[in-house]
Amino acid sequence: MTLPLADALKGRLIVSCQAPPGDPMRHTDTLVRMALAAQAGGAAAVRVNDPEVVAATVAAVALPVIGLWKDGDSGVFITPTVRHALALVDAGAAVVAADATARPRPDGSTFAELVAAVHEAGALVMADVSAFDEGREAAEQGADLVATTLAGHVPGSPAQSAPDLALVADLAAALPVPVIAEGRVSTPEQAARALDAGALSVVVGTAITAPTALTKAFVTGLAR
Ligand SMILES: CC(=O)N[C@H](C=O)[C@@H](O)[C@H](O)[C@H](O)COP(=O)(O)O
Question: Quick count: other Cβ atoms within 10 Å of Cβ 92?
Fold first, then answer.
């Protein structure tokens, strides 16, 4: 394993500290406190949305920050352009997470161009993919890490209720770069199974940092 960050992430948890638009938790200081709680609990890294929140988190938390910038809500919207990616590096992200699906990017750039720009700026790239071929191509285009973030979330990738551990296993068996399990990991047991499937580490978001969504799930469970 040649990636220095890989040693710090190996076998460990990454906590996604995000809140959707309109959510009461979407507040920079609150999100930084989520990241501090993740650090206190033993996380190896945090995954954070928006350059302003990335900068505040980098200033407060002694963990590698994986930055993304969600802009919009359709098509490619997770760090969609080179401009978005470089803003995250400027904010201090050690890793830039970006959509690496085979869909057109709004600035007409390619994922390979985003990777090159981020590397030139001194950071690493996590490719968020939904399918095996996307992961293979992202690695070929220079991604340092490949994550299953978008499985079940984009057209052509059927909705799922559990982590896509088959995709984790397929990618981990084939790719020359580390694979990160991300998406719908809801229990410590599922997280452990993701490592067993070959993931370098596991990202958990909703199950740790989304009280609105978790409350709704309980409310729905009580509905008669
Ligand atoms: C699909 C998409 O936009 N995923 C986002 C990526 O950053 C986040 O909203 C997720 O919370 C994150 O991937 C962690 O996943 P989960 O919350 O299922 O543990």
Answer: 16
Domain encompassing residue 54: 4-222
Q: Is the CB of 18 under 6 A from ligand 1?
A: yes
**CATH code at 94?**
3.20.20.70
ipTM above 0.85, yes or no: yes
Q: Is 50 in the pocket of ligand 1 (CB under 6 A)?
A: no
Whether the CB of 15 sits within 6 Å of ligand 1: no
Task: Count structural domains, the chain.
Answer: 1
CA 98 to ligand 1 centroid distance, Å: 12
- Residue 146's DSSP bridge partners are 127, 179
How do residues 2-27 score in pLDDT, each as one tens digit? 578 999 999 999 999 999 999 999 99
Ligand 1 pocket, residue 190 CB under 6 Å: no
Q: Please list the helix, strand and coil fractions of the chain in percent, rounded to the nearest 5, in that order.
A: 40, 15, 40
